[in-house]
């Protein structure tokens, strides 16, 4: 299973298990680097969740995964366990 596929499965599991809170209205500054081709400060995860989630799954790192998973300690531990 590829790394991207593993990430998608993990985040889907966390979402379905109810471990991910609703996305906030603004991106944290630490994630702006993944939105290099747009005005990252104007991107709203709440308004455009599919765009934000797909971009972070495609271009993101473990910190982006933790953000999508809600940033909880449980989410981070699961991500580390399954993704290395």
Largest sheet: none
- Kindly report how far apart the N and C termini lie: 13 Å
Q: Which percent range fits the helix content?
A: 40-55%
Order of helices and strands: HHHH
Number of strands: 0
Tell me the Rg in angstroms: 12 Å
Strand content: under 5%
Q: What structural class results from the helix and strand content?
A: mainly alpha
Explained architecture:
This protein is an all-alpha fold and 84 residues long. The two termini are 13 Å apart. The protein is built from 4 helices and no strands. It is globular, with a radius of gyration of 12 Å. The chain has one domain. Helix 1 (3-16) packs antiparallel against helix 4 (73-83).
In summary, what is this structure?
By secondary structure, the protein is mainly α. The chain has helices at 3-16, 49-59, 62-68, 73-83.
Features of this protein?
84 residues; mainly alpha; globular
């Amino acid at each position: 299973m590829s790394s991207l596929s593993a990430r998608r499965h993990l985040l889907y599991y966390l979402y379905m298990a109810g471990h991910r809170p609703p996305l906030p209205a603004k991106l944290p500054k630490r994630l702006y680097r993944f939105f290099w081709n747009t005005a990252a400060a104007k991107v709203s995860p709440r308004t455009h969740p599919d765009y934000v989630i797909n971009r972070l799954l495609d271009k993101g790192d473990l910190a982006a995964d933790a953000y999508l998973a809600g940033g909880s300690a449980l989410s981070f531990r699961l991500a580390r366990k399954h993704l290395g």
